[in-house]
Design brief:
Elements lengths: L27 E9 L11 E8 L2 E4 L3 E2 L9 E9 L2 H9 L2 E8 L11 E9 L10 E9 L7 E11 L19 E2 L14 E7 L1 E2 L2 H6 L4 H10 L13 H5 L6 H4 L7 H4 L3 E7 L10 H11 L13 H25 L9 H12 L1 H8 L1
Antiparallel strand pairs: 1-5, 1-9, 2-3, 2-4, 2-6, 6-7, 8-9, 10-12, 11-13
């Protein structure tokens, strides 16, 4: 008998922060229909397999089905709905991915207190296309377990939304008020570093105010155009002003100091956007190795090569002979300059006596 025969943590509502409901928004329902278990096996006999669905703070699990090491068809299914009708609900479609996991709870061993669960595969899917008018996302997943390559993971994923979740909260052209209008300032200065072609990251979204653009260096014209449109900043036809023009605009006006009430959820929910921009080539080329070699050559002047010392038996014999020749020349010079001081004494004895007395005999031995 399975330890759990019903859905473990299924919740029928979506926990979003308390935000005032917009009367212009209809309640939106997202339906999840996840199936799996075809040709499924476990790492141990007696293990219980189940599916888990996570989306933001919402979690649901399928029934726990006992499985064996031999592959068989079992029925794992999650069928749930969540609903919402405020900006927080739609914001979560962008902030959180849908995560589906195939899990295995191993049979308890002796003296084991806590359950041991293996995650065979996690599947992440983006639900933001619902905000662009898409009504249904269907997909079949055929993968292998990351824990046991012999275990197949087969899933059928179906997510639908009703009614259309595309946002329609734009300001009216005649009133000039902002509606759900946030701003994220992105620093692109790293593109000026040599070889950099891509900038990406998560950037915080704040409620839009004129002061934020002015402090960033943009002048009155771009803030005025954004207020009139109430949607997307039209930066293509507006140039960036210098600090002097930005500094001349007063920050004390109520419309520049305060954000629209319906834009406050961006701050309350700590919203952020992921931004990535890539160029086919870097704005500033990276220096090549050849350029670096040229620069080093100008800094380090050329010097003559160090002569290599020769080694070997022939070189040793030549050096030995040259030393004998040098000592012989020194002895010959002494003999030619020597004049015996006493008569009757042999020339050889007198020469040796003179060499030993002056220490030149020992010097010849040292030189040799």
């Amino acid at each position: 008998m399975s330890r759990r025969t019903s859905q473990a943590t299924s919740r029928a509502s979506f926990k979003s922060p308390p935000v005032q409901r917009d009367p212009n928004m209809k309640e939106t329902v997202i339906s999840f229909n996840i199936k799996g278990g075809q040709n499924l096996s476990a790492t141990k006999d007696g293990s219980e397999m189940f599916l888990r669905l996570s989306f933001g703070s919402f979690t649901a699990e399928s029934e726990y089905i006992e499985a064996k090491t031999e592959a068989s068809n079992v029925k794992l299914a999650i069928k749930e709905e969540i609903s919402g009708a405020n900006t927080a609900f739609y914001d979560n479609l962008v902030r959180f991915p849908l995560t589906i996991s195939l899990l295995e709870m191993l049979p308890k061993e002796k003296k084991q207190k806590e359950d041991k669960i293996i995650c065979h595969r996690e599947v992440h899917r983006d639900l933001s296309p619902f905000l662009k008018g898409k009504r249904k996302i269907s997909e079949s997943v055929r993968e292998v377990s990351k824990e046991a390559p012999n275990i197949q993971v087969n899933l059928e994923i179906s997510v639908s939304i009703s009614p259309d979740a595309a946002k329609k909260g734009k300001a009216k052209p005649d009133d000039g008020e902002l509606h759900n209008h946030g701003i994220a300032l992105i620093n692109l200065e790293s593109l000026l570093y040599p070889g950099v072609k891509t900038v990406s990251g998560k950037f915080k979204v704040n409620p839009f105010t004129q002061n934020q653009l002015i402090r960033a260096g943009y002048g009155e014209s771009i803030t005025a155009s954004s207020c009139n449109s109430g949607t997307i900043l039209s930066m293509g036809s507006t140039s960036r002003n210098d600090s002097s023009s930005a500094g001349g605009v007063s920050d004390n006006r109520p419309e520049s100091r305060q954000a629209a009430q319906d834009a406050l959820p961006y701050k309350e929910l700590n919203s952020s956007v992921f931004f990535e921009i890539s160029f086919s080539r870097a704005l500033v080329d990276r220096a090549t190795l050849q350029d670096l070699d040229k620069n080093l050559a100008t800094l380090i002047p050329m010097r003559p090569k160090i002569p290599r010392k020769k080694y070997g038996a022939e070189i040793s014999v030549e050096e030995y002979k040259s030393q004998i020749t040098e000592v012989a020349k020194l002895v010959l010079a002494e003999i030619r300059a020597f004049a015996p001081s006493t008569k009757g004494e042999s020339f050889e004895k007198s020469l040796l006596y003179q060499l030993n007395r002056t220490g030149k005999h020992a010097q010849f031995h040292e030189n040799f």
